[in-house]
Structures are given as C-alpha cells and as structure tokens.
Amino acid sequence: MSSISRDEVAHLARLARLDLEPDELEHLAGQLDQIIGAVAQVSEVAADHIPPTSHALPVTNVFREDVLRPGLTADAALAGAPEAEDGRFRVPQILGEEQ
C-alpha cells in the first residue's frame, strides 16, 4: 500500500491540469511513492560534514583579459549587406505595418 493516496494524486493532477483516468491514478500513486522513497534514501545519506556540490568535479572558469580592439566601421559592416539605406541594413517588411 502506498503512502500517497489516490485522492492526493487526483489533487496533484488537478493542480497540474492533467485529466487522468482512475487506473492511471492508482498507477501513479505507486510510482510517486517509489520516487519519495528514493528521495528519502538520498536524504539519509546526506551528512552535515559533506559540503553540498553542484558538480562531481571542480569547475573553474577560464577568463581572458578584456582588451579593447577595433571593430567594424559602419561602412564595412554594410558592405556585405544585400541592401542598405541611410546607413542601416534594409530588410523586407514582415508585419504588414504602414511605412
């Protein structure tokens, strides 16, 4: 017998806006009970002297210096554009708004 009742599963299903059949409620009650049991086992293993971790191995970021470099000029950027107008990229109208 699961510690999670069929009514509790039905309540969770309503909250999640799931339409479950009666046999699905029974099936899910057992599965949710197994999940809760597995989480309880993991909680038993956790000890205060073991620090919580997000990764099995240490993760470090590799940073580079932020160096200012020259970028493209407006003319150079627009040189590869199929169409340009008034110093900007020209693209086809897609929303049907008035120009």
From TrEMBL:
Gene3D superfamilies: Glu-tRNAGln amidotransferase C subunit, N-terminal domain
Keywords: ATP-binding, Ligase, Nucleotide-binding, Protein biosynthesis, Transferase
Enzyme Commission no: 6.3.5.-
A Pfam family per the record: GatC
Database matches in InterPro entries: Asp/Glu-ADT_sf_sub_c, GatC
Complex and partners: Heterotrimer of A, B and C subunits.
Role, per record: Allows the formation of correctly charged Asn-tRNA(Asn) or Gln-tRNA(Gln) through the transamidation of misacylated Asp-tRNA(Asn) or Glu-tRNA(Gln) in organisms which lack either or both of asparaginyl-tRNA or glutaminyl-tRNA synthetases. The reaction takes place in the presence of glutamine and ATP through an activated phospho-Asp-tRNA(Asn) or phospho-Glu-tRNA(Gln).
UniProt name for this protein: Aspartyl/glutamyl-tRNA(Asn/Gln) amidotransferase subunit C
